[in-house]
Amino acid sequence: MISKDKVLHIADLAKLNIEEKEMAKYQIQLTDILTEIDKILKVDINEEEIMISPTNNKNCLSEDIPEMHLSKDNMLKNAKRVKGDYIIVPKVIE
Amino acid sequence: MKYLDLDIKTINQKLKNKEIKPIDLVNEAFAKIEVNNLNCFITLNKEEAIKQALKLENQEVDNILFGLPIAIKDNIITKDLRTTAASHILDDFIPVYDATVISKIKEKNMIIIGKTNMDEFAMGSTGETSYFGNTLNPWDKTSVPGGSSSGSASCVAARITPFALGTDTGGSIRQPSSFCGVVGLKPTYGRVSRYGIIAFASSLDQAGPITRNVYENALLLNVISGHDNHDLTSSYEEVKDYTSLIGKDVSSLKIAVPNYYMSEVIDKKVKQAVLEVIEILKKEGCQVDFVDIDYLQYAIPLYQIIALSEASSNLARYDGVRYGLKIDNFNNIDELYKNTRSIGFGNEVKRRIMIGSYILSGENANVYYYKALKLRKIMTDNLKKCFNQYDLIIGPTNTDVAYKLGVKQDDALKSFYDDLLTIPVNMAGLPALSLPIGFKNNLPIGMHIIGNYFQEEIIYQLASFIEKTLNLNLNAKEVK
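Output (C-alpha cells, whole complex):
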C-alpha cells in the first residue's frame, strides 16, 4: 500500500487537501488504481508509434479574420466581482 | 392522451394537422417529471420551454423534429441555462453561448426541457457521483440507471422526452442506455462537434443521441453531425442520411464477435441473450464469426492512464480564480486552489485527477503515459484490422444488467470495470450503439454494435433489423 506521504504528494500535484480522516480510504483506493495501471508496464510491445487522438484531420488553418464572439456584457456575466470593464480576481501574484 | 408514447412520425403528423400543438408535448413532459420523481434533471427549462412552444404555434412544421421535447446532459453548455456538470464547483455557472450541438437542435426548433443529471464531470458509471443526488432507473428504482449519462437515459426510458443528448468518454452513453433499455449511440470521434461540451478527456469525449428506438436515434444523429470550425478535431467527412439503410436487407453483413466480449466475466443470461441474437442473424444469412482481437484486455489500465491524465489537465481550470465556486478562506494562492477544489469536487473526481496528475508528473510521463499512447495505437490497429474483414463487431454492452444502488460505491475500480467492453471503442474512436435485446429479472440487457469509422448507417441497419425482429415491450415498469 502507498504511504501517507505519497498520498499527500499526489494530492499536492492535483492541488487538493486530504484530511486525516480520509487518509486511510485514499491509501487503499489510490493503491488499487495504481496497481491496475501497473499492468500495462508488463505488456510487451514493439510499437514505436504513438496515438494521441483518433482524428484524421491534418492542419486545420482558419483565415486570420477577427470575428465577434461574445459581447462585453456576456463576458462579465460569470464574474463574481466586476468594476467597470474589469473583473476583480483574488490576488494570484505573491 | 399520452402523446409522448407515440412514435415520432405520428407525432409529427399530428403537429402538421394541428391536432396537437408543441405546448401539449411540453406540458406532458413536465407533468411526467413531477409524477415520476426519478431525479433525472438538475435544472428544468420550464419557463423558456413553454414560451418557445407557444411561439412555435405560429410557425410551419418544417422538419420531423419540429416542436419535439429533448433533454440535454448537463455537461453540454446552454446559453442562459445553468450548466453544472453535476458538480458543486459549477453549480452557479450560467453559460454565455450555446454548444454547437445545441445550436443545431435549436435550428430544428426542438424544445429543451431541461439539463439532465449525470455523474460529476461524467466520471462514474452509476449516476451516483452527482452533487445533486443519484438518478433512479425507471425499470427498478432500487437499481442504478448506469452512467455517466444517467438522467438522459432514465428520462428517455421513462418516456419523459423522446430524445436526449449524452456524452461518452468510456461508455457513458452506451452503459446507461443498456441499463435503462433505450438506444444510445456514441458516434465516430469527430462526427459531432465537441465545442461547448465540458471537457473530461478530449481525445475520447463524444456527444451522441439517446432515444426510444433506432430510427429516432438516426434522426437525431442527422441533425447534430458535421464539421465545426470551432472544433478542429471535428471531421470534414460528409454527413450522410443515417436513416438510409434502416429496413434494408442485412443478409450480406459480415459480423465479428470478439471472444473478449463473451468471456467468463460476462453474466450467463446476458451471454445467452447475445447468442440468441447471433442465431437470428445466422438464420437471416449473416456471416457471424467468433474472433480474437488482441490487446483488448488492457482496456481498463489504458483508460485509467489516458482518460485520467487528460482529465487532470482539463480540470486544472477550476481553480477558484475564474468562474465557478468561490471561497473566502485562504492566505495564499496555493490555499485558494486547494480549498476551492477540495470543497468543489466530489470523491470520484478527486481520485481521478490525483491519479492523472501523478501519471503526468516527472518521469512517470515516460513510464506510463507514453507507453499507454503506444498501446492505444496497437489496440486501435487491431480493431481496424478486424474491419478489413467484417462490417460490424457485436457483443454485450455490459457484463451484466443494472445492479443495486449503493453496492459498489466505495470500490475505486468499480466504475472502470463497468466500462470493460465499451472503452476500446473510445480508444480507437469508432462508432458504437447499445440496443435493448432482452431482460434478466425484468431489467434490460444491452447489445453492443460497433461499426467502422463514419459508418453509423450500417450500425443502424443491423440494429433496426434486430429491434424489429425481437419486438420487445420496452415500457419501463415503474413509470406512471
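Residues 20-37 of chain A form the longest helix (18 residues).
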